[in-house]
TrEMBL record:
Coiled-coil positions: 94-128
PANTHER family: NITRATE/NITRITE SENSOR PROTEIN NARX-RELATED, NITRATE_NITRITE SENSOR PROTEIN NARQ
Gene3D superfamilies given in the database record: 1.20.5.1930, Histidine kinase-like ATPase, C-terminal domain
Enzyme kind, highest EC tier: transferase
InterPro entries (UniProt xref): HATPase_C_sf, HATPase_dom, Sensor_HK_TwoCompSys, Sig_transdc_His_kin_sub3_dim/P
Species this protein is from: Glycomyces terrestris
Key word rRNA processing present: no
Protein name per its UniProtKB record: histidine kinase
GO MF annotation list: ATP binding; phosphorelay sensor kinase activity; protein dimerization activity
């Protein structure tokens, strides 16, 4: 409200000073310049809502004067138009230019922040993908190395020096697996992606059996779609890795069955024979085994999250003296 009153006062001063301009004194001439500067600053700095209406109303007040004294009325209107209206509209135009420039700067800054957020998200997804691939492939291979070293340690007729070297190799493989999981925990900020994978479950089971794991494939369903196949592969791979690492010498059964629009996966191992554990010098790792009081390990937790994102159910825990990993995944066609 005060902004409108200030502009009205400037306009009124210009109209009054526009009367009787014959033989204009110096101070009145200087007043025109002062009014022009004030009008420009008002339009440039102040955000009045009804400035144009106030100026038009001031111009309308000179119309009755024109009816009485045409010369003075016209002069007052021209003074108002030249020394108040034009500077005020010029200031307002400049103000709008600055506001548009600032809005463009803010929009560019906001877009830049959004691009940075998108880039960070892409980097996080890439880190998660790398972590998942390293965990699933390298971790599984390290578990097989430990299993082979344990089998070599039990080989008859092996010299004590070689037996000790095999035991050290097995221990180093287990320790490397733990360190790998800890390092990948820093990379995996999100759930592991589910990109397609070509190796079937039967080849995975065959490789594990060739490495010395007592594993058999009791059932294998046909492909259910790339995403589901990938998840099934990872579930079996993680379960076999845990069996080789935490229950060497135990028998493992793998079942992959399709019933209607769902795929059921079950990987269960029996209790490891005491001779296989004590005779080979096997000990549980320093951290809790999967499903113990400490909860799911990072690998099983990642599998649970993957299955949840696919709309399925997941469970892992002790079962009949051994350990079982089970999951059910809905099939929604090839994705």
């Amino acid at each position: 409200m005060i902004y409108g009153a200030v502009l009205a006062a400037i306009a009124a001063a210009a109209v009054v000073n526009g009367f009787d301009t014959v033989g204009l004194s110096p101070w009145r001439q200087a007043l025109f310049l002062v009014l022009a500067v004030l009008a420009y600053l008002h339009g440039r700095r102040l955000a009045g809502r009804y400035g144009a209406q106030i100026l038009l109303a001031a111009g309308a007040l000179t119309v009755p004067v024109m009816g009485v004294d045409r010369g003075n009325g016209l002069t007052a209107f021209l003074v108002l138009a030249v020394f108040v209206m034009l500077p005020w509209f010029g200031g307002r135009y400049r103000r709008q230019q600055v506001e548009l420039y600032r809005a463009a700067e803010e929009r560019a800054s906001r877009l830049e922040r959004e691009r940075e957020l998108v880039a960070e998200r892409v980097q996080a997804q890439e880190r998660a993908r790398i972590a998942a691939d390293l965990h699933d492939s390298v971790g599984h291979d390290l578990a097989l190395i430990a299993l082979r070293a344990g089998a070599l340690e039990l080989a008859p007729g092996l010299p004590e020096a070689s037996r000790g070297a095999a035991a050290a190799l097995r221990a180093n493989a287990v320790e490397a697996t733990d360190r790998l999981r800890q390092a990948l925990g820093l990379l995996r900020d999100e759930a592991a992606p589910v990109t397609p994978f070509d190796e079937p479950v039967r080849d995975l089971v065959a490789r594990s059996a060739a490495a010395g794991l007592d594993v058999r494939l009791e059932a294998e369903a046909a492909g259910a779609g790339t995403v589901v196949d990938r998840a099934v592969y990872r579930i079996v791979q993680e379960a076999l890795t845990n069996a080789a690492k935490h229950a060497p010498g135990s028998a493992v059964a793998v079942r992959v069955e399709r019933s209607g629009e769902a795929v059921r996966v079950a990987v269960a191992n029996t209790a490891a024979p005491a001779a296989a554990l004590a005779g080979a010098g096997h000990r549980w790792p320093h951290r809790e085994a999967p499903g113990a009081a400490g909860g799911l390990g990072s690998g099983l937790a990642g599998l649970a999250e993957r299955v949840r994102l696919l709309g399925g159910s997941f469970s892992a825990g002790p079962r009949e003296g051994g350990f079982a990993v089970e999951a059910e995944l809905p099939v929604r066609g090839d994705r």
